[in-house]
């Protein structure tokens, strides 16, 4: 059994942001921190106060995290980036919105006294009996992951204890965010013991005021009852100061979609009855006069969660080798409904969403190969492309000859030539790609092509449009318009490039519609492109004929990146920092090309060069971040592994940005998830001289001072299948539809206007639906045996005290009432 949290975050857009540059604008981007650890950085949107990002992420976490903070920053080329404001969302807030929160949230100022992080290890006890002199004793042991307040990337922490008007302080530990004190403090217990013990952590500064690092507050009355309390306690901000809420409105706001899904994934054998039932339903196919379970699922699933259900089903049937049969069943059921040729598959039905999800899950490498060169060319050339006379800006083009400014017609003609060149290059790549298209995608389109042709024998062009409605309108065009969201580019396009991409996507859509005249009727200014579009339609028809024309037998389970594990999980250049030891990595600092596969992390001088060394996955013990002060960069990771001589070695590898850092960490943690020797603790610093830079321990092989975070990963389209997780999510969805499924079955079974006499209580349900309810009941019982109800949405309110272990982030002593900030 695995208990985990999946956090889905979509950063949509911002509005009314303040200007931070002298030009009266800003260059905003967002940093997402989970418990004050940077996990995600969006792309920068240049020169705007109303940026649109539209970026989506899903992070797998241990279920002990506390809050999400989203910082809006202004990028500056010559100085430190400015902080515009932030939004903070606690775990409690998300628990109050089990279906997710969606809406605008006002940015608040960043208060230094609220920017706290880390945990402190304390032992607090009451000594002495009633009637004698009693003492309140607090032993301050150590702290970890404290906020970095000094320029050297560390802090100089000390502890201040307050009780009954008296104050005591610990010694200062210089240059450490992982200090160890082991000091004991005693206070005479007041009568009655109504006061609270406040343990504060501060950063000592020689010049200026000390910086607040967080605090923990204990109820002495509670301590008297318990006698003693010991453990790691999450540091909390100082809420005693009044906030100036009037400044919030001037900082603008963010539109966010955030959902927390707490999951208890049972052992895979528990889901076998559900998986077998769904597979049997797919194999049985459509039968006249009966209501299929897939039809019931389609009719009862709301639009807001249909996309998620479609992804779960596609991945489940990919793992079972039945994705072709599943899609063919959806096509058949959709075509059995009353439909018109010109609106076929244009709705967001389960069939449309499943096919769209299927293409994204299995076709991303194919998409990158087709669109990549043209998208790169558009970004690099930055040509001015405009066909709409109402939007032409002569000044953006300049002079075509000496002392002569181009006319509007010349600008449009030049834009048409550029756009036609991009479209021609793109269509040429598509036409040549039929042999390279994944076989499982070709089979799915062949099935669709045949089914539509049988349904509309008098409209043979419809079967071509059915294919392009998915391939062009739902796959190619969205990726052209927003290449960042399909991982084709690392940055968003500027305004000029974005307009070119929009026009190119529109042209591809018109080719996919197979009727360019219809598009020209809506936007007459597209008329100059009509000859190119007509030629593109002929080319597209020829491509589709070749794509679906050859009968091929695909092996069961073929599914692109999510079927058999990909040979290369991740690769790219990384800078190797100088290390000690006799491991395979060089001792001198240099840049190497690294390649992570299902067997090893290997490296060489360049992508095509011979591999000069490798670290076997079975020897990797941890993949974690490194403190910024260690190498002067916040984008360094460490790979702890067992060397050839059996000794523990560490490789320090620098990435170019926070996103690349977290992607590498995520990939390494996923491929090493089953390693039996993973570490539970590690050192986030480096061993220099005679001690660790993080906690100042002098034992090189001593126990680490922070917990490893094996469970923190980013979801990626190339992830291997997780059948148990997909089955658990489908179980949760179906469990919430039990009553609706029953009602919808009788509604679909009875003809319109017929009496409801057949719905008597004694009327038996069909075998498939009856078996489904039985399977859901059994799974619900399994969840009860594991100590929680069948619902995946956990009630996480209330105090939590997790045991030490990998991936934990600490907890506060008490959880007070929360509100949206």
From TrEMBL:
- Leader sequence range is none
- Ranges where the PH domain occurs: 567-673
User: Which Pfam families would you find in this protein's record?
Assistant: BTK (PF00779), C2 (PF00168), PH (PF00169), RasGAP (PF00616)
CDD domains registered for this protein in UniProt: RasGAP_RASA4 (cd05395)
Q: Where is the composition biased (Low complexity)?
A: 811-821
Q: Which SUPFAM superfamilies match?
A: C2 domain (Calcium/lipid-binding domain, CaLB) (SSF49562), GTPase activation domain, GAP (SSF48350), PH domain-like (SSF50729)
SMART domains attached to this UniProt entry: BTK (SM00107), C2 (SM00239), PH (SM00233), RasGAP (SM00323)
Q: List residues of the C2 domain.
A: 1-105, 116-233
One GO BP on record is: intracellular signal transduction
Identify a single GO molecular function assigned to this protein.
Answer: zinc ion binding
| Keyword entries, A-Z | GTPase activation, Metal-binding, Repeat, Zinc, Zinc-finger
Renumbered residue ranges of the record's region Disordered: 797-821
Please give the InterPro entries that the UniProt record associates with this protein: C2_dom (IPR000008), C2_domain_sf (IPR035892), PH-like_dom_sf (IPR011993), PH_domain (IPR001849), Ras_GTPase (IPR039360), RasGAP_CS (IPR023152), RasGAP_dom (IPR001936), Rho_GTPase_activation_prot (IPR008936)
What range(s) does the Ras-GAP domain occupy?
A: 305-513
Q: What is this protein called?
A: Ras GTPase-activating protein 4-like
Where does this protein come from, organism-wise?
Answer: Aquila chrysaetos chrysaetos
The lineage, from the top, is:
Eukaryota, Metazoa, Chordata, Craniata, Vertebrata
């Amino acid at each position: 059994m695995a208990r985990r949290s999946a956090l889905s975050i979509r950063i949509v857009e911002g509005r009314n942001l303040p200007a931070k540059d002298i030009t009266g604008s800003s260059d905003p981007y967002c940093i997402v921190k989970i418990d004050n650890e940077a996990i995600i950085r969006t792309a920068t949107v240049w020169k705007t106060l109303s940026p649109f990002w539209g970026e989506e992420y899903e992070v797998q976490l241990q279920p002990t995290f506390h809050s999400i903070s989203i910082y809006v920053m202004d990028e500056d080329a010559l100085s430190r980036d400015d902080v515009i404001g932030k939004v903070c969302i606690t775990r409690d807030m998300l628990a109050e919105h089990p279906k997710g929160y969606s809406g605008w949230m006002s940015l608040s100022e960043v208060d230094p006294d609220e920017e706290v992080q880390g945990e402190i290890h304390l032992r607090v006890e009451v000594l002495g009996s009633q009637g004698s002199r009693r003492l309140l004793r607090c032993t301050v042991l150590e702290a970890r992951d404290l906020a970095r307040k000094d320029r050297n990337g560390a802090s100089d922490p000390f502890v201040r204890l307050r009780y009954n008007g008296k104050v005591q302080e610990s010694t200062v530990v210089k240059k450490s965010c992982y200090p160890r004190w082991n000091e004991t403090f005693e206070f005479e217990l007041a009568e009655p013991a109504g006061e609270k013990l406040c343990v504060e952590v501060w950063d000592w500064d020689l010049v200026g005021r000390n910086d607040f690092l967080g605090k923990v507050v204990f109820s002495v009355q509670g301590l008297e009852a318990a006698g003693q309390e010991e453990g790691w306690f999450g540091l909390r901000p100082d809420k005693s100061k009044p906030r100036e809420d009037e400044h919030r409105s001037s900082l603008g706001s963010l539109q966010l979609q955030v959902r927390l899904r707490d999951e208890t994934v049972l052992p895979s054998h528990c889901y076998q009855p559900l998986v077998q039932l769904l597979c049997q339903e797919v194999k049985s196919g459509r039968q006249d006069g009966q209501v299929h379970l897939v039809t019931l699922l389609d009719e009862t699933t709301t639009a807001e969660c249909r996309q998620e259900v479609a992804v779960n089903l596609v991945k489940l049937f990919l793992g079972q080798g039945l994705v072709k049969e599943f899609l063919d069943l959806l096509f058949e059921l959709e075509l059995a409904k009353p439909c018109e040729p010109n609106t076929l598959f244009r709705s967001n039905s389960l069939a449309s969403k499943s096919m769209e999800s299927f293409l994204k899950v299995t076709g991303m490498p194919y998409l990158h190969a087709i669109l990549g060169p043209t998208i790169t060319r558009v970004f690099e050339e930055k040509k001015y492309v405009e066909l709409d006379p109402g939007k032409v800006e002569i000044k953006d083009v300049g002079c075509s000859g000496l002392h002569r400014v181009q006319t509007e017609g010349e600008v449009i003609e030049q834009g048409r030539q550029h756009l036609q060149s991009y479209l021609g290059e793109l269509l040429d790549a598509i036409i040549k790609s039929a042999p390279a298209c994944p076989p499982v995608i070709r089979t799915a389109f062949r099935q669709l092509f045949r089914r539509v042709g049988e349904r509309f024998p008098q409209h043979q062009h419809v079967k071509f449009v059915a294919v392009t409605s998915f391939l062009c309108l739902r796959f190619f065009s969205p990726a052209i318009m927003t290449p960042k969201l399909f991982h084709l580019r690392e940055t968003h396009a500027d305004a000029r490039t974005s307009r070119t991409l929009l026009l190119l996507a529109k042209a591809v859509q018109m080719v996919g519609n197979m009727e360019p005249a219809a598009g020209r009727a809506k936007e007459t200014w597209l008329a100059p492109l009509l000859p190119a579009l007509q030629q593109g339609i002929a080319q597209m028809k020829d491509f589709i004929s070749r794509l679906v024309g050859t009968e091929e037998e695909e092996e069961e389970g073929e599914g692109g990146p999510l079927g058999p594990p990909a040979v290369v999980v991740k690769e790219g250049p990384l800078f190797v920092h100088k290390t000690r030891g006799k491991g395979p990595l060089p001792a001198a600092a240099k840049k190497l090309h690294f390649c992570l596969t299902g067997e090893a992390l290997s490296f060489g001088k360049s992508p095509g060069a011979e591999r000069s060394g490798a670290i076997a996955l079975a020897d990797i013990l941890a993949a974690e971040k490194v403190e910024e002060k260690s190498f002067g960069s916040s984008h360094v990771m460490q790979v702890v592994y067992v060397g050839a001589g059996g000794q523990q070695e560490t490789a320090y590898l620098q990435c170019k940005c926070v996103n690349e850092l977290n992607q590498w960490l995520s990939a390494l943690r996923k491929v090493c998830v089953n390693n039996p020797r993973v570490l539970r603790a590690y050192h986030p610093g480096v061993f220099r001289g005679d001690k660790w830079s993080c906690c100042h321990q002098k034992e090189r092989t001593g126990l680490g001072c922070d917990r490893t975070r094996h469970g923190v990963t980013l979801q990626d389209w190339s992830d291997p299948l997780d059948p148990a997780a997909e089955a658990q999510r489908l179980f949760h969805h179906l469990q919430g539809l039990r009553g609706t499924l029953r009602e919808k079955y009788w509604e679909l079974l009875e003809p319109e206007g017929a009496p409801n006499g057949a719905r008597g209580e004694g009327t038996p349900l069909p075998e498939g639906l009856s078996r489904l309810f039985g399977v859901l009941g059994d799974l619900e019982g399994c969840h009860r045996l594991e100590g929680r109800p069948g619902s995946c949405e956990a009630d996480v309110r209330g105090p939590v005290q997790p045991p030490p272990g990998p991936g934990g982030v600490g907890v506060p002593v008490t959880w007070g009432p929360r509100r949206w900030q």
